[in-house]
Amino acid sequence: MTVTATARSWFVTGASCGLGRHLAELLLARGDRVAATARRASELDDLAAAHARESLWVQALDVTDADAVRRTVDAAFAALGRVDVVVNSSGSGPLGAAEEITDAHLRHQLDADLLGAVRIARAALPHLREQGGGRILQVTGAGGHDALPLMSLRLAAARGVEGFFTSLAREVAPFGVRITLIEQADAPAADRAAPLAAYEGTPLAELRRTLTSGAVRPLNDPAKTARAVLDCADLEPAPLRLVLGSDAYETTRTALARRLTDLEAQREIAWSTDVDDVRH
After folding, report:
1. In a structure prediction context, what are the per-residue pLDDT tens digits for the chain, which is 280 residues long?
2. What is this structure's pTM?
3. Are 83 and 130 in contact (CB under 8 A)?
4. Are strands 235-236 and 2-3 parallel, antiparallel or unpaired?
């Protein structure tokens, strides 16, 4: 892979905090232009005060509002003239066993993290095609490769994101649009489903206590992660996946190795179900 650095225009969701905020600040500091969004525009007031209007465009955006997503993305492309890189950050779902999660949790998680990501990409694609290409960097959790207890809803959204963007990457490659999934460790959720008494005394209860103790934190540094995301936009060819953080790397490697071992063990069974005239 080679890296080609150049000034760009970016559309960044979730720019009020975390990775989105670190990335927006880094981009503005190096002279790029940024269209930054957050659920509440007031959360970007300090960023706007520190940068000229020619460099920073801000807008409130709730990604669960399909009409607002389309309007905001259209307005950002119009304001900047061109957007080279679209960065969409994923949220974090509630911590809890599958039957502890409420219907409200279910609807919000999938609407925000899965459908929200899809909406951003679909709104940006006509512009990216028309301008002859661009990048979409979709932030998601490395846990999408594993089956982590207490995170079933979060992982349902993450695997949906994986499937959608993996397919999308092949659809839009002829237009010069490149997709990269940014996979990092899942942070412990602040939102927690009410525990069911039935799980007390099980390994799940001990895991819950560990995850809610505050002792478990992702190892990746937000500022270093933002730097890696920025650099990713300059990589040629664009990687389909970029794993950030040693914890994310080890989780992904272990999960994929285990899946490959399980698959190889089923080879004879798989081939035995082919029609009789197939030759292997």
Report:
1. 444 456 799 999 999 988 999 999 999 999 999 999 999 999 999 999 999 888 999 999 999 999 999 999 999 999 999 999 999 986 667 889 999 999 998 999 899 999 999 999 999 999 999 999 999 999 998 877 777 788 888 889 999 999 999 999 999 999 999 999 999 887 666 678 899 999 999 998 888 888 888 777 778 788 999 999 999 999 999 999 999 999 899 989 999 999 999 999 999 999 999 998 766 6
2. 0.91
3. no
4. antiparallel
Residues in contact with 65: Cβ distance below 8 Å, sequence separation at least 6, in sequence order:
none
Neighbours of 123 (CB within 10 A): 21
- Per the listing, tokens 């695997």 go with 159
Strand pairing class (33-38; 56-60): parallel
Q: Across the chain, where does the E strand assignment appear?
A: 2-3, 9-12, 33-38, 56-60, 85-88, 134-141, 177-184, 235-236, 241-244
* Closest CA relative to residue 151, chosen from 112, 101, 85: 101
Picking from 47, 140, 40, the residue whose alpha carbon sits closest to that of residue 88 is 140
